[in-house]
Amino acid sequence: MKTNPGRFFEDYSLGQVIPHAVPRTVSGGERALYHALYPARHALYSSDEFARASGLKAAPVDDLIAFHTVFGKTVPDISLNAIANLGYAEGRWRKPVWPGDTLRSESEVIGLKQNSNGKSGVVWVRTRGLNQHGETVMDYVRWVMVRKRDADAPAPETVVPDLRTSVPAADLIVPEGLDFTRYDFTLAGEPHGWGDYEVGEKIDHVDGVTVEEAEHMLATRLWQNTAKVHFDATNREDGKRLIYGGHVISLARALSFNGLANAQMIVALNAGAHANPCFSGDTVRAWSEVLDKAETTAPGVGAVRLRLVAVKHGAPDFALKGEDGKYLPDVLLDLDYWALMPM
Amino acid sequence: MKTNPGRFFEDYSLGQVIPHAVPRTVSGGERALYHALYPARHALYSSDEFARASGLKAAPVDDLIAFHTVFGKTVPDISLNAIANLGYAEGRWRKPVWPGDTLRSESEVIGLKQNSNGKSGVVWVRTRGLNQHGETVMDYVRWVMVRKRDADAPAPETVVPDLRTSVPAADLIVPEGLDFTRYDFTLAGEPHGWGDYEVGEKIDHVDGVTVEEAEHMLATRLWQNTAKVHFDATNREDGKRLIYGGHVISLARALSFNGLANAQMIVALNAGAHANPCFSGDTVRAWSEVLDKAETTAPGVGAVRLRLVAVKHGAPDFALKGEDGKYLPDVLLDLDYWALMPM
Amino acid sequence: MKTNPGRFFEDYSLGQVIPHAVPRTVSGGERALYHALYPARHALYSSDEFARASGLKAAPVDDLIAFHTVFGKTVPDISLNAIANLGYAEGRWRKPVWPGDTLRSESEVIGLKQNSNGKSGVVWVRTRGLNQHGETVMDYVRWVMVRKRDADAPAPETVVPDLRTSVPAADLIVPEGLDFTRYDFTLAGEPHGWGDYEVGEKIDHVDGVTVEEAEHMLATRLWQNTAKVHFDATNREDGKRLIYGGHVISLARALSFNGLANAQMIVALNAGAHANPCFSGDTVRAWSEVLDKAETTAPGVGAVRLRLVAVKHGAPDFALKGEDGKYLPDVLLDLDYWALMPM
Hints:
The structure is a homotrimer.
Chain A: E1 17-25, H1 28-37, H2 43-46, H3 48-53, H4 63-79, E2 82-93, E3 102-114, E4 120-130, E5 136-147, H5 185-188, E6 202-204, E7 209-210, H6 213-222, H7 245-255, H8 257-260, E8 265-274, E9 283-295, E10 301-312, E11 331-342
Antiparallel strand pairs in A: 1-3, 2-5, 2-8, 3-4, 4-5, 6-9, 7-9, 8-11, 9-10, 10-11
């Protein structure tokens, strides 16, 4: 059998490092496509000139291009037989990714726990994205529920990693040279800086996008994500293609420009839940909540911790979970991240 | 309220200059996407070699990429609360835009006229697109009807700008170095030069394209145009997404290759009307009429003034308006522009 | 009449060389779009670093980008009035195409045979794709059935070219410098090298993609292919748009990564049949059969001759033709090519 059957729960062992295929060089082409696929307008990624005025050598590719590219490579090894994508933690962007860079990724197994039904288990991996210089551009922990090939295979020792509920502000990595002291709020699109946001504040990002099949498939392929459910309408009984959760992340982040135009760079992913599936025809909207704020040592650069929620259909009412503690059916995404903002 | 509510009629004042967010660097990615989105085949934009043989340093990005990018930036400030896009005039392309250039735009209010109903008014702006050197790459006048926030706000003094019905041939700007004396008609795709077209001649461009939702949304996002009606199927009562008028302009211009393959560069926009809305599923066709011809001082370069009409459904019969003087229901676009052609 | 009516059978003469419009410069934009349009993962085209480790200066653009670009230019001259695309033969890739290269193409008429009905005939052309240095990057023979304009036009002398059923292994051209002796199978995605494949072996590539209208139109336009049937839903009585056969070739080739990840470079096209039409909504799958194997003189580089079959709907059962010798209705493509693999 020459084709990839994916890994099953018993194929993972603690400490194992899995290098993922296929390296990928990104260019202005990926940047242009990102702007075509999402209503992305953050100035630092849209304009080389704006990035230079902020102390960088040029506009990096969007932080989420880096994330999706690194993530996409892990799919054949980590989630081909996954039943559920359970969570993210401790994600940090460590180096900007520039057009011309080549990315690859590898994952280390940091936790294993067989489910009580004996048929599946949870695998925790720390995934690292590396550039052509071998530098880590980002890393994050992700855990998935994976089927066992053989229900009789022995259970591994249970190791549940001790993960932080959020990346401490002191551990955020500000890109070298970043300087927001001469930040042009007019060119960036909104006048609100770090000081204008209060913890607890909620922002309805107003705009909505109705998603089409061609769009999410173009995006998901662009990140070389091969999961069948996104492409093959015969895969589910209802004939629907499940939209890659990362597509919803990028849509929501781009929509959040309207109200958070100055939350320029994503520097940490604290947590994330794909609360409900998204399908073609859904109209996606987003709202954010300011969870925390911190200063950084970089000139003029503050950090803001945000909850980004994507919902479908009607205007968001900032509701997240029901009385049963479960996500409401219209909530698609609940993402917790740190972004850098001008002071 | 952190999100952009858009400007209302009383927010504009004569002489006001509005700098628009977000600057944008274009690359080979935008060029490739333009070819994927439209059946664009004009050789000067398709081939660096052809452009070099015509005296340019490389193929510029399509003139309409420049237009859409500059226009897209104005939407949040000019047309978010617009009821109607009333017209264009005095548009001129002044400098080619090259891959790597960063574009921004700004608009000056040059006219204001409150409607007699007191609920809205017409705003005229002259919009300039600027590159990273501060050079104007194009400018044009556009006027829109905008809602008032408060019907009781006082009416401004009425100033209706005196606009020319077309850019005089003597004012056309030929890109520096352009030379069509060694023009290769075979490589360009058609044998007809400037001398082969007669004023009054009409050309049916034959081909048709049936438009899909994903296509026009990819295009409209690529220009960072944020108008809700193009993306959000819940925005209109009929559940339709209105296709950005500029998408129809680019479609029609690309279709016009078949019969006008040598009308290489657009140098002026004299007038334009989005006669009827275009929706997904419409099959767009185009025809042109030669309105005028002029020589230029550049070697081998002539100018031709063209009416470009986009229609939907059946083959065009060159009909434009009914006996009531109104556009026929199948007419989508009536555009009046100057293009440069080899003599 | 300024528009292109296309050529009819009597417009071709033996030995005639037809230079095709419009030259095209390719860039990282086309590469990114190729990854968005197809689930392409072959490492040599995905990563500049992987290509350098294989002795090339960078990742070339995909061999099929070269093919589609060269082919697209021939459509207005060869197949605008074609009734059927009958076959391919003797295709060879001679030089990699790099981002920044400008491609044009020309076709020489090498065979003519009027059909017995007197209304149409078969035209054989050898098409060459040339880069900006005038070097042939690829060439192939293609034959099509073309309508006559005038049934009374005299029949040309019948000349049927003597075509080889496949390119002999000794005639395969390995790109200069290619060296697979330090090939990284892990990064490439699969452990199977040239020695692991046996003649007669069949591989089900497992994955499927359900095709959308927007996707195949974006792709077909990207190659500047202007055939009406792909874009205009009013062109056929059933309102369907016929998907460009080359779109199915690229889809199937990309799907074949799963099982043939190391069949890196396509170097010859031996034969090809578009067995049945493909339409939006079809779910495309693929299987391959190893037809032949050969060594090459390049270090660590072997050649494998593959049959690539695209099917629609259910899982492939490796069935190709019925008892009547005709392709089964679910077979879309039967392609015979040579690829280069690490030993």
